[in-house]
Amino acid sequence: MTIHQNLIAGEWVGSDATKNINPSNTGDVVGEYARGSVEDTKAAIAAAKAAFPSWSRSGILERHAILRKTADEILARRDEIGRLLSREEGKTLAEGIGETVRAGQIFDFFAGECLRLAGELLPSVRPNIGVEITREPVGVVGVITPWNFPIAIPAWKIAPALCYGNTVVFKPAELVPGCSWAIVDILVRAGLPKGVLNLVMGKGSVVGQTMLDSPDVHAVTFTGSTGTGKRVATASVEHNRKYQLEMGGKNPFVVLDDADLNVAVEAAVNSAFFSTGQRCTASSRIIVTEAIHDRFVAAAGERLKSVVIDDALKAGTHIGPVVDETQLKQDTDYIEIGRQEGAKLAFGGELLKRDTPGFYLQPALFTEATNDMRISREEIFGPVAAVIRVKDYEEALAVANDTPFGLSSGIATTSLKHATHFKRNAEAGMVMVNLPTAGVDFHVPFGGRKGSSYGSREQGKNANEFYTTIKTAYTLA
Ligand code: NDP
C-alpha cells in the first residue's frame, strides 16, 4: 500500500506509517499515513518560518486564486472525498458529503475574504496627523484538529490562516488523516508556494507537543478535548503566543410544555444522536418540563425505534458506528455509570452486531436523570443522552446554565416570550430555537464560552481577529 506522506518544505516525506482503519469494518484499511517525528515537526516549523516573509507579502489575487481553486476541487470531488470521510470517521455518507461541501464553501468564503481585506483611516486627536489601523498576519500558525470533523475543522482553520497571509504547520488527529491529506494535496496543486503549508501527521504527544514547545510557532488554533486544550494554553502562555481553543460541551436542549412535539422530538434526537453523538455541539442533556415530559419521552422512544444504525457507507443508514474502540468503551462505561447513578435507561445502549465488524452502539436515552449526575456533567462524546425533568421554564433555564461548559444551547417552544428570554440568558456561544443544538453555518461566528472555548471566534469574518494582529500607524501630513 502506498504511504500518504507528510508535506514538509514542499516535499512529500516520511516512511513510518500508521494504518487508518474504517470503524464500520475494522478489516478495511482506508490507507497508510506517515507518522511524523520531533525532527519532522521542527523541519516543518522552520519551513513555515522561512516561507512567511514572502507569503505574508503575497498579492491578494494570488491567495484568492489558490483558495478559490481549492474550493472548486473540493466541491467537484464531494462524493469521493465525502466517501473517504465516512469511511475513516464513520459518519453516514450524507453527513460525509455534507461536511465536504461545507469545507469547499469555507475555502470559497475565505477566497472572497482575501479581496475584502480592509483597514481604517482616522484623524488623529493632534492636528495634521493621520492614523491608519491595519491588520497584519501573525506569523507561523500551528493548526491542531480533532477526529470528529475530519475536513470541516481543518478547512475552517487553514483557509483563514492562509487568507490573511500566515504560514501553517498542520497536525490532524491521528485517527482520521485521510481528508487532511486530501485537502493539503489539493492546496499544493492549486499553487501554494513551498513551505507555506506543512502537514505533519502523527501522534499528538510527539508532533503536537513539539509545536507547542516551539518559540517559532506564533499562534496555535486548537479544537479537541478540554485536557489537551489546557496543555495548549499553558505552553502558549509560556511562549507569549496567541492561542484559540474550542473544546468540550455538555449542551442543553430544553423542551417546554408549549413546544410542538414533533419539532421537539426531531430536534432533540438529531442533537443527541446524529453523527453518532460525536459533535461538540451535540446535546446530551434534554431538559423537559413536567406537562410534556411523558409524551416527549414516549415519542422520542418511538422515533429512535425507526433509526437505522449500520455501516456508514450503506444506503439507508441514519447513524454510523462509534469512531474507535477507545471511544466505544468510554460510551459504554458512561452508560453503566448512568445506571449506577440511578438514571433509568429508557431506550437502547446495547452493542450491535452488523454484517461487518465495527463499533456499533444503539443510541442510549436515559430518563429520571438529575443534573448533578456524572452523565449530566461530563462530556461523553457518544450517542448517549439523558432526560432531566423540571417544573417550569425558570427551572429549565437554571439547569441548562448549570454546567461548566457553554458551547451551544437549544430550546423547543412556541412562546415568543420564552424563546426571546432564552436567547438572551442562555450561557452559551450559540443558541438554537426550535432547531438542533448542532448544525451551524460556515459564514457566521462559531464558538462558545465558559469551559468550552477560549479566545476569539472561528469562521465568518470574525476569524480575522485570531489570524491577524493590529497595527496602528501615525503619519504627519
Ligand atoms: P484530543 O484533545 O484528544 O485531540 C485533539 C488534537 O490534539 C489531536 O490532533 C491530538 O492528536 C492532539 N493532541 C493530543 N495530545 C497533544 C499534545 N500533548 N500536544 C498537542 N496536541 C495534542 O481530542 P479528540 O481528537 O479526542 O476530539 C474530541 C474532543 O474534541 C471532544 O472533547 C470534543 O468535544 C472536542 N471538540 C470540540 C469542538 C469545538 O469546536 N468545541 C469541535 C470538535 C471536537 P492525536 O489525535 O494524535 O492524539
From TrEMBL:
SUPFAM superfamilies, per the entry: ALDH-like
| Residue ranges of domain Aldehyde dehydrogenase in the record | 13-472
Pfam families the record matches: Aldedh
Alphabetically sorted, this entry's keywords are: Oxidation, Oxidoreductase
UniProt-listed PROSITE patterns: ALDEHYDE_DEHYDR_CYS, ALDEHYDE_DEHYDR_GLU
In the record, the note on similarity to other proteins reads: Belongs to the aldehyde dehydrogenase family.
Q: What is this protein called?
A: Aldehyde dehydrogenase family protein
